[in-house]
Amino acid sequence: MNSTVTSAVVVGAVLGLGLYTLIRALMPTRRGAVLTIHRVDAVRARGGHASFTVPAPRPAGGDQRRSRLDVLRDRAGEWLAEAYLRRGWVQRSLRADLALLGRSWENFLATKLGLAAVGLVFGPAVFTGVHLLGIGESPFIPVWLSLAFAGLFFFLPDLEVRRDAAAKRRDFRRVVAAYLDLVAMSLAGGRGLPEALKAASEVSDGWALVRIRTALADARITGITQWQALGKLGDEVGVEELRDLSNSLALVADDGAKVRDSLGARAETMRGREMAEIEGGAGEKSQSMLIAQLLLCAGFLVFLIYPAGMRVFGGF
Question: How is this protein positioned relative to the membrane (predicted)?
């Protein structure tokens, strides 16, 4: 009896502490410096004016043309993004992955919240199926399953985004290496650095060169140099090569020969790194295939030896 009471008290204390922590995390707090600076940067990136008042309500006609589910998703995403900023959870790496994939931060957070809600329902459903089999009698099991599945489903989109962004970032680096070669060829043909950067970005309509071309076009509008625009693009999508390229071009922008040599060496380095990654991936796949073949051979040997072994040991 005492052990039952003690376990109930412990479980209640843990649940109470968890609810208190959740409420404290979701409670609105005083707007901090991180939130204010982020809003200024976001509005500046859009080319607008900063406003720290409550956002104006959306037109009724726009909401009527959209489904209620989309409107609810947008509002949930905006609310969760506001909560992240109030707590100082910037998530720069995840934001860079989303920017590379062309996905909205608010929609991503709304997806996470929706999947967490699905996890809350999925936990009791799993418990119901297990309980029908005669396993599990404690009433606290559905609660723990709900929390576990909600947490798991909440972080599943992070894994998907990081996987897709890693693959797309590898493709982006390949395009950057080819782009640097094109810029070096344009410089060798007598063009200046700004003209070479622009001309090399116009040879194709692939998504990576379109991003570079858009960044260069924005540089002319905002009044910054093109290599600064490339550095900002590297910060946005999380490609270190563009940031390094921006810093090196800022140092040797006035010397065409040095720029050409620097771009050629950088492109060669990127291709060597890419080849090393490809060879490493091929080696890992070869090791995986070797392990799979060894396991298959071991299983086949067990299949051959088992009948004889049973006859030998069965005689004792």
Answer: Multi-pass membrane protein
